[in-house]
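@here heads up, posting the sequence + SMILES for the flavin-adenine dinucleotide run so it's all in one place. Ping me if the SMILES looks off, I pulled it from an old spreadsheet.
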Amino acid sequence: MKPTTVTLDADVVVIGSGAGGAVTAAKLAAAGRDVTVLEEGPWIDADAVEPFSLEEMAAKYRHRPAAALGTPSIAYAEGRCVGGSTEINSGLYHRLPGHLVESWRDEYSIDEFDPDTLDAYAHRIEEDLAVSRLPGAPPPSSALLERGATKLGWRSVEYSRVFRYDTAGRGVKQTMSRTLLPQAVDAGATVLPDCRVHRLLRRNGRVVGVRCQRTADGRVEDLMIRANHVFVCGGAVQTPAILHRSGIRGRVGTGLKVHPMIKIAARFPHPVDHGGVPMQVVTEFGPNLSIGGSASRRGQVAMALAEASDNIEDALADWERVSIYYAAIRAEGSGRVIGVPGLRAPIVTYRLTEGDMSRLARGLVHLGEVLLASGATELYPSVADGPVVRRQDGLGAWWDAVTRSRASLMTVHLTSSVRMGEDRARTGADSFGRVWGYENLRVNDASLVPDAPGVNPQGTIMAIAARNTDQFLADT
Ligand SMILES: Cc1cc2nc3c(=O)[nH]c(=O)nc-3n(C[C@H](O)[C@H](O)[C@H](O)COP(=O)(O)OP(=O)(O)OC[C@H]3O[C@@H](n4cnc5c(N)ncnc54)[C@H](O)[C@@H]3O)c2cc1C
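bot reply: prediction finished. Complex structure tokens:
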């Protein structure tokens, strides 16, 4: 049956309900603006599925296997549900380091961008989302990393998290579907889940509306939403894809940045917790290399072991003693997102430099050192046919194993595909996210962050989105 077409009107349309979109919608609604949020994914009760489970992957991830093409390719993950990637992330929180604020301001000519302003926004977000440290002792997977770092004399810190704790010390991750989106709805915003935006409608240098398709009660509806203002907040991959599908190019989709990660599945002589993600991060080699822990449910352990070796039955049967850790770098290399009309998924490419490859090899060796120091007995690297290592003197073999054809990399931090600033030759949007050439079209998500921050990016994305929304409210 041919879908029906429905036309709606909104003052402001926000596309995407993740870290950037939720901040934008909550602030606009609180200021009394008429806001409609369009979210491609479903609205799933935050308690309905187990965090980090395979069920969560099926329900909340954009679950087509995706990889940024290149040698090596880099697998990446994105959320696709109300709340976006904040629903599936680990909730580790870090402010944007002040020295990066200053260097980005100078490099991209970003107006009114300084550490004090960003810190003031970060402070408000930290209060709203109850950003805090773990009230009790860390779980073993985290304590092990700290133990190994202390033994080696390396610096490591426990990261804060976007978690609210009750008096018994139980923590609940403060995702956007639990916090800012209900606040936006209470203040009058409309959130339309299961609503995928195909493209923006343009006329004479303005965006006049949005074409999307919504599934509700088993029925598919074509929607045309007329809007005075549009914020695109689909994340660093989908935002440039939406703009490209709408015929908006310029410096859009170039300069994509990620934090590539190389991993080790580490086997210990004792069981390790598997419910959460370690909050300890080794900062000894920062700001360009950091070491931490990943989700390690049975499914993730199986995938990590399989990357290393085809002889994994024994370790897999013992998966409760296996935990996954990573080394992540700030890559020098960069990538591109190309949205193709008619194709549902954009093409994403990424080119790592030789320097990036050697930083990844160094990261893998340091990660191995700290895990052996923490008591691990067997290390499976995410390197095809990478030797399984049991002693410090075996780690040297990994230097030559981390090659473009053998390293298996992934990332969950993607930024910088529509950078902001006044340098029009290098940015896709102005200092407050307004897309060059369009008076009423703004980007307000990870895409704007001018470079990889080297720390967990959600706090940076939210602080920048809040700053830009205030500027919009002052201007319109
Ligand atoms: C597994 C994982 C773990 C992570 N861990 C951490 C962490 O511990 N700490 C941290 O700081 N960061 C972490 N991150 C990264 C962080 O979550 C993201 O950087 C951040 O959420 C990005 O915000 P965003 O608003 O740009 O995009 P998202 O939060 O991804 O939101 C984008 C939303 O837009 C929607 N959308 C896209 N296209 C369309 C369309 N055409 N129509 C309608 N809607 C659309 C998507 O469905 C999605 O819901 C993690 C990410 C992942 C995936």
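MO: The CA atoms of residues 63 and 178 lie 22 Å apart.
MO: One more: The pocket of flavin-adenine dinucleotide is lined by residues 15-21, 38-41, 77-81, 84-86, 88-92, 196-197, 233-236, 238, 242, 412-413, 445-446, 456-458, 461 (CB under 6 Å).
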